[in-house]
Amino acid sequence: HLLRDWAGCSTITGHGLTKGAFGYPQILPRSPYFKVGDIAQTSISGLENTQYIDKVDDNQEKHQDGLVTVDKEVDRIYLAVGNHLVIHDATLRRRIRITSKGNRTAVVWNPWVKISAEMADLQDDDYLRFVCVETTNAATDRVSIQPGSEYRLVANYQIEQD
């Protein structure tokens, strides 16, 4: 039995107003930080068997075998992703479903101990209680908007309680 207790949507629209095509190197929404009960009891599905750029490890391209988990600083751009991701939060007994349109990449970020302590807007241990999962256009996922056309990057969020 699922109880849907919250849903939301984020949309960014770009319009082609010039005479020639206008290329956006990236279309970036506001980064969504999702509260979780305990990062050690949290995983992300929908990114299995994809390649990612590991920004923490000198932009090395790597392969994601199973579910994404966070046990250290994570700053990754997942490439050629689908449009359904799920944050599984075992501590708060819920799933956060993310469906997207207009993107082919996703970013997963958590600053971990050192960076969290250096950030003015985070408490030193906040990294234990959130994860950023952002559907976006990053790395080689570039957008070109033709004159008179528009481009939309849409992310829908839905929380389901166990």
TrEMBL record:
Gene Ontology BP terms: carbohydrate metabolic process
Pfam families: Aldose_epim
InterPro entries reported in the protein's UniProt record: Aldose_1/G6P_1-epimerase (IPR008183), Gal_mutarotase_sf_dom (IPR011013), GH-type_carb-bd (IPR014718)
GO MF, any single term: isomerase activity
Superkingdom to which the source organism belongs: Bacteria
SUPFAM superfamilies tied to this protein: Galactose mutarotase-like
Name assigned to this protein: Glucose-6-phosphate 1-epimerase
Lineage: Bacteria, Pseudomonadati, Pseudomonadota, Betaproteobacteria, Nitrosomonadales
